[in-house]
Description:
The two termini are 30 Å apart. The model has no long low-confidence stretch (mean pLDDT 94). The relative contact order is 0.17. The chain contains six helices and 14 strands. The protein has helices at residues 121-139, 176-192, 196-207, 248-268, 315-318, 327-337; strands at 7-10, 17-20, 70-73, 87-88, 96-97, 101-107, 146-153, 165-171, 211-214, 218-221, 232-236, 275-280, 295-299, 322-323. The chain has one domain: HIT-like (HIT family, subunit A). It has 339 residues and is α+β, with helices and mostly antiparallel strands.
Amino acid sequence: MNYKKPHRRRNPLTGRWVLVSPNRSERPWHGSVETTENNIVLPEFDPGCHLCPGSLRATGERNPRYQGVFVFDNDFPALVHSGDASSENTPPWKQGMMETGICRVICYSPLHNTSAADLDDASLLAVIDTWVNQIDELISIPEISCVQIFENRGMMMGCSNPHPHGQIWATGSVPTEVDFEDKHQAKYLRDNGTCLLCDIQRYELASAERIVLENDYWIVLVPWWAEWPFETMLLPKSHTTSLMNLGSEQRNSLAGIWKQLLRAYDNLFSVSMPFSFGWHISPANPRDSKSWHLHAHFYPPLLRSATIRKFMVGYEMLAEPQRDITPEEAAELLRLSTL
């Protein structure tokens, strides 16, 4: 197949397709131009920040003067841990159900003017250990079916506070994206007798076309089916379903490659790269416990510079996702940014 001409690629994790149009990558741009956040100087401590140590949050509760990672229940949660189990199913097209869950915030550091890319490996490892502890606690709650760890970085991605932090949403039902991935991974195992993401990484390591980073335990690649211009996937080389299953060497190795990837993103356009990032761990009751492979998705919105972003509009909203730069080109640019 000629990658230089318009073509479609299928996402095997969801079954959805993406249109790749390399001929559009050099088109003139007279659209929206973003401002960068590099000229914003943040203090080490901001008394008006609800996430800083010792600060008063919007609810009136005061943060402890924490020195490392700090976790608390979100003051404005998208979910609540109690509620009735009512549903709405009439007429037949009108389906709805109550949803319960738990929302938490993870502050990576007490320093307001830093990011995960600036933290040392020990501090990143502390964040990873916190993820593991939170998953262990939340997934053991009978009402919880899925735990979603994620981070929105930068104003462009709707981040409401620049203090380095991520979130955890634990839900009673399995969210749509996770359910799609669970369904397609289980089907791939039934049809082929092997794990989908194990097969993908073996192929990608052999071809090296879309590999960005690699160490003893982890790889970062631009997926064959990537929708966002510089989208990447981080996954362990050995088959595992959850962060909870990682040994100490795998966690240490994860801290290192996570930092390398964040710095590569920042180097790409010489700006603190905005993105949404999140882990996909196995739901509490997967369709097949042997089919799910732990992985993380990174979705940065920047297209061709620090001030020009990709918009998912028009054709993308009405038909299917479309990208200009090929995943192979994106991987090469990211590899160069790791040097």
